Amino acid sequence: MLEKVYPTRIIVPMMQHYGVPAVPTVEVGEKVTIGQCIGAPEPGSFSVPVHSGISGTVTDIRDVSLPNGVKCRAICIESDRKRTYHQSISPRSNIHISASEFMGIVKNAGIVGMGGEGIPTIAKINRARETGVTEVLVNCLQSEPYSYSDFLRISDSADYIVMGAVALAGAVGVTRIRFLVSESASSEIVALQTAMQRTAGEYSGYSFDFAYFKNRFPQGYYRLVARALYGEILGENDTMENACHAVMFNCSTVFACWNAVADGLPLMSRVLTVTGEDGLGHNVLAPIGTPVSELLDSVNGKLETNNTIVWGSCLTGLVTNDPDNTPIIKTTSAITIVRDDDVHEYPCIHCGSCIENCPMEIEPGIVTTLIKQGRYDEAEQEGARKCISCGACSYVCPSGLPLTPTIAMFAAQKRNSVVSAYSTTEKIDIGSVTLMEAYEDVSSKEYVKKEEKVVLPFEGGKFI
After folding, report:
1. Whose CA is closest to 247, among 226, 224, 266?
2. For 50-98, where are the alpha helices, taking DSSP H only?
3. Which of 98, 154, 332, 446 is the most exposed place for a label (fewest CB within 10 A)?
4. CA 451, 453, 458 angle in degrees (round to 5)?
């Protein structure tokens, strides 16, 4: 069951993605509506727009620090409880758009990868077009214990995922689509197969296939998928597009793409799982920016919140000590409550358990020691940047060492350091521009190299 959350306020960070922060387009005291663009990229920057998921008043624009180490500006909005949508938000009556128009919609909707680091979806599309990929992969491999948000999205919205996959394939320029699923996800597989049959008359020339994976953790990270499907071991600077000639999108990201096309909605809310250690899960639809404390207060049933609150899933998430000021963002798939244990740390006993269980073949004990000693270059040489934050090393460590947090934070900082520094621009004035009214973005023009008059593959247009 999907529970809807209506927060009294939201805190919307300007950086919820891989790249640089967006710049506020509103000011304190300004009235905003649902779907309104409240943060826009500076021209030429590697960024995406940010939208409001509630209607209300901007009460503050301040600096925030997220549990993942990101520090940026955030827009605070108090709800007016009216749930008023921006005037530009309306369903599309007929889908008859070109590849470039689809890409513009995805870009302006602020869609990013919702299952990982939050790479802007428009960037992945552009890279796939440039490298000439041969297939689109839809990642349905949510393998983290007690996290079911992607599974619910598949069960409830399989048609949108299938149609979004077709639209992405059309924009990229391929006809083969593969769904990566767990072999035990029988209901989700049936939902997708039924959606394919139901929508088959609305496009032609596209082939669908399933790749079945064992039900284990971790599973869906792109480096592991590249090894499993293509036998490719990706280096630190390799991409799936270059090495495997494939591009992979998370199923919730694919849904968001079709939601923007068909319903005119930007990425302003998401489904996530709220769960406790007892395994009692609540799948909720919440506006992005909802404070964790309001999320926990709103779910049906009782979750003990006097324990540790994890911003994310139980193994890959990060602890937050300030749930009132920590919001969910575009990449938050879960909020997890875990029991407070008095865990003592002991010196490393060199048992090798962390090495045996690391899916990326890192030596976590050695890398952690190097990072703590400030020997960062050596830590990089030992493969620290390959860390996928799966939590396996910390979970098996008999000494209770925080291996995953140490390496993952270091890896994230190194990956983000390749992006240009954030400009100090205080506000971008875009007037009434919002989701579908494109504002100037010179960076997107550099990537468009294929024929732009190609219409997405829907027979004579698709009526909604």
Report:
1. 226
2. none
3. 446
4. 115
Tokens of 24: 């506020």
Q: What is the DSSP letter of 344?
A: P
Pairing of strands 71-79, 56-65: antiparallel
Helices first, then strands: H and E counts in the chain: 14, 19
Q: Coil, helix or strand for 21?
A: coil
Joined tokens for residue 148: 């079911």
pTM equals 0.86
Tell me how far apart the alpha carbons of residues 120 and 436 are, in angstroms, rounded to a whole number.
Answer: 17
Q: Residue 145: which of 70, 215, 75 has the closest Cα?
A: 215
Amino acid at the residue 302? K
- For 95, the 3-state DSSP assignment is strand
Amino acid at 285: L
* Residue 421 CB neighbour total at 10 angstroms: 7
The residue with tokens 């740390």 is 345
* Distance, first Cα to last Cα, the chain: 25
Distance between CA 177 and CA 192 in Å, rounded?
12
Helices 121-131 and 99-108 meet at what angle, rounded to 10? 150
CA distances from 278 to 274, 316, 338 (A): 12, 18, 9
Q: Rounded CA gap, 398 and 141, in Å?
A: 29
Residue among 316, 277, 270 at smallest CA distance from 295: 270
Interatomic CA distance for residues 164 and 160, integer angstroms? 6
What stretch(es) of the chain map to CATH 3.40.50.11540?
Answer: 94-264
Integer Cα distance of 159 and 343 in angstroms: 46
- Banded pLDDT at 426 (limits 50, 70, 90): low
Name beta bridge partners: 311. 318, 335
Structure tokens at 349: 């006993």
Distance between CA atoms of 176 and 226, rounded to whole angstroms? Answer: 17
Q: Which amino acid is residue 301, in one-letter code?
A: G
Given pLDDT bands bounded at 50, 70 and 90, which one contains residue 447?
very low
- CATH 3.40.50.10440 describes domain 94-264: no
Query: Which tokens hold the place of 297?
Result: 């207060």
Q: In 3-state terms, what secondary structure has residue 335?
A: strand
